[in-house]
């Protein structure tokens, strides 16, 4: 099972900071993970499919084409702004 972590506004929208989910065989990269999560309904569709979200896989910044697997830790967080 993949461990999903949610931070900041994503955590608020999801109503939890983490969960573990089994990934279907069709989920092989970040883009397919985002599509899969979007199909799980609310709050996933609203919180996790926004194009501006950052994703990290095993604590490394990830892009849509980067692989994901059952034993990965996948974090979702909004862009960081500062001054």
From TrEMBL:
| InterPro entries registered for this protein in UniProt | Beta-grasp_dom_sf, Mopterin_synth/thiamin_S_b, ThiS/MoaD-like
Q: Which CDD domains match?
A: Ubl_MoaD
Task: Quote any Pfam family the record assigns.
Answer: ThiS
According to the record, the signal peptide region is none
Q: Which SUPFAM superfamilies match?
A: MoaD/ThiS
Q: Which domain of life is it from?
A: Bacteria
Q: What is this protein called?
A: Putative molybdopterin converting factor subunit 1
Question: Which organism's genome codes for this protein?
Answer: Magnetofaba australis IT-1
